[in-house]
């Protein structure tokens, strides 16, 4: 019998003998602490064993029920395996039913139910089930809001409530209807402050601390644009990646988004020898992305490993596109064209990256080679090399308006990364002028980056103006992620 089914059977058998709600307790004891820490470091087998031991020893401890939900949440989010999702989806109703037997006068009653609903809202969103995600998110939001009213001094409220407050405050226009329908209001700064308060006042041995640190880091990195501060923290002894694959994933993810490919490669190489590393194909994808920015055709081997081991439908088209780019830059047009042809055959278009790959496959042209080299160099943090490439481009050869807009944008990025804001703003304005009426991402992203520069400089009105300009751009590539950043910027400034 699979161990996860055994765990579920133990839970059902133990709880089915309950004769009254008053027997149920919320005890975050040593077994629960160990299980939680194991789950949050991707030691799934060890975590599962701790939960089984706890259920046998204390069959009415609902904290064990709550913590068991992390297994589903973490595995489904990282591996996004549809068949695994179908096997595990019924656990939601079973756990909510068990948690419903608890003591309603306890602050943990609504908190645990709200946490489980939030887990599955995120899972639903990952699998493209937006309406189900919205319903569960609203249930979680309402339960936690009620819990804060009933138990205002219950500090654990600040964990999920802070995350949800920040997320709602940054919803882009395409998702804003969710908040309006359910009457949810958010504030990025206020939500992040709730997370900060909890992290400051609690320690690693207490419930919720480990994940709240991750929520706080992601909120600061993506919603408050405090990338430098977050990067410094995850490179400190406080953020260990040794024997912790979840922290490895987080650090590699932030390294790639912070344009530090060498750090991503180093982090992943150090973790590759760990026992469970190969259980998560996403690491191969991250390594491929990092090597592509060099560019190094070794990235192809990592993308192929992702495609071979991965059981989800996300990043499939993106992988084929990235392999096409690697071969294209290496001068192997036969293999590049083959990879391009595979994009239409496999994967989904639920993610912006996969949508962009599909659009590339439907187009008969290849990107301007030097612009692609410059883009990848910037993505990897190799700015001096990118500037050399850009300076070597003859602008007369850029007859495609999209290439002209990208050319200006890449210059703007290099200058911004080099702290030359004057030149960066100048080239971002060139980008907007060249691409405002087009459907590529460059004009919108240029307006976004101008907003960030003005915000960092304390020029509030100019920053808000640029963020609004970004939101007002015509439909374009990567719209959801770009709009969310612009919306978060406006929310930060208007509520600060």
Layout of secondary structure:
Blueprint: H1 3-16, H2 30-39, H3 44-57, H4 62-79, H5 82-88, H6 91-99, H7 107-126, H8 130-150, H9 157-169, H10 176-182, H11 188-201, H12 209-223, H13 227-234, H14 245-257, H15 261-271, H16 282-292, H17 299-309, H18 316-330, H19 333-343, H20 352-362, H21 369-380, H22 383-391, H23 401-417, H24 421-435, H25 442-456, H26 460-471, H27 479-494
Helix pairs in contact: 1-3, 2-3, 2-4, 3-4, 4-6, 4-7, 6-7, 7-8, 8-9, 9-11, 9-12, 11-12, 12-13, 14-15, 14-16, 15-16, 16-17, 17-18, 18-19, 18-20, 21-22, 21-23, 22-23, 23-24, 23-25, 24-25, 25-26, 25-27, 26-27
Query: The biggest beta sheet, please?
Result: none
SSE arrangement, N to C: HHHHHHHHHHHHHHHHHHHHHHHHHHH
Count of helical segments? 27
What structural class is derived from the secondary structure elements? mainly alpha
How many β-strands, per DSSP? Answer: 0
Catalogue the unreliable spans: 16-20
How far the N terminus sits from the C terminus, by CA atoms, comes to 55 Å
Overall mean pLDDT score?
91
Rounded to an integer in angstroms, the radius of gyration calculated over CA atoms is 24 Å
Tell me the overall shape. globular
Beta-strand content estimate: under 5%
| Helix coverage percent | over 70%
So what's the oligomer here?
single chain
Keywords:
single chain, 496 residues, mainly alpha, 0% strand
Summarize the model shown.
This protein has 27 helices and no strands. It is mostly helical and 496 residues long. Helix 14 (245-257) packs parallel to helix 16 (282-292).
């Amino acid at each position: 019998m699979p161990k996860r089914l055994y765990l579920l059977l133990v839970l059902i058998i133990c709880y089915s003998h309950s004769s009254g709600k008053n027997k149920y307790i919320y005890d975050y004891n040593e077994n629960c602490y160990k299980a939680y820490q194991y789950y949050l470091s991707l030691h799934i087998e060890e975590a599962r064993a701790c939960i089984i031991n706890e259920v046998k020893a204390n069959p009415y401890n609902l904290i064990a029920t709550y913590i068991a939900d992390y297994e589903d949440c973490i595995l489904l989010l990282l591996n996004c395996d549809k068949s695994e999702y179908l096997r595990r989806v019924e656990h939601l109703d079973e756990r909510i039913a068990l948690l419903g037997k608890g003591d309603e006068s306890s602050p943990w009653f609504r908190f645990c139910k709200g946490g489980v609903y939030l887990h599955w809202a995120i899972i639903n969103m990952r699998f493209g089930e937006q309406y189900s995600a919205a319903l569960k998110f609203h249930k979680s939001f309402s339960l936690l809001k009620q819990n804060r009213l009933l138990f205002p001094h219950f500090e654990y409220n600040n964990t999920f409530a802070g995350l949800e407050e920040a997320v709602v405050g940054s919803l882009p226009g395409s998702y804003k209807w969710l908040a309006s329908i359910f009457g949810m209001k958010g504030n990025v700064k206020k939500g992040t402050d709730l997370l900060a308060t909890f992290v400051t006042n609690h320690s690693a041995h207490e419930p919720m601390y480990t994940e709240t640190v991750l929520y706080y880091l992601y909120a600061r990195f993506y919603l408050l644009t405090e990338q430098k501060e977050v990067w410094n923290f995850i490179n400190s002894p406080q953020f260990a990646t040794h024997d912790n694959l979840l922290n490895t994933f987080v650090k590699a993810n932030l390294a790639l988004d912070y344009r530090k490919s060498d750090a991503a490669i180093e982090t992943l190489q150090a973790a590759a020898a760990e026992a469970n590393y190969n259980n998560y194909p996403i690491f191969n994808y991250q390594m491929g992305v990092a090597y592509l920015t060099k560019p190094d055709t070794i990235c192809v081997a990592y993308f192929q490993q992702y495609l071979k081991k991965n059981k989800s439908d996300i990043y499939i088209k993106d992988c084929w596109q990235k392999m096409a780019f690697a071969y294209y830059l290496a001068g192997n047009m036969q293999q590049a064209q083959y990879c391009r042809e595979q994009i239409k055959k496999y994967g989904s278009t639920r993610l912006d990256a996969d949508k962009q790959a599909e659009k590339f496959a439907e187009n008969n042209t290849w990107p301007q080679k030097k612009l692609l080299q410059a883009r990848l160099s910037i993505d990897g943090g190799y700015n001096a090399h990118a500037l050399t490439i850009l300076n070597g481009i003859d602008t007369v050869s850029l007859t495609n308006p999209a290439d002209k807009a990208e050319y200006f944008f890449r210059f703007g990025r290099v200058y911004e990364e080099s702290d030359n804001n004057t030149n960066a703003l100048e080239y971002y304005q060139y980008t907007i002028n060249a691409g405002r009426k087009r459907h590529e991402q460059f004009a919108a992203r240029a307006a976004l980056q101008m907003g960030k520069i003005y915000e960092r400089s304390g020029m509030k009105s100019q920053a808000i103006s640029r963020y609004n300009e970004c939101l007002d751009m015509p439909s374009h590539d990567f719209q959801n992620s770009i709009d969310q950043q612009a919306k978060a910027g406006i929310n930060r400034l208007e509520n600060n």
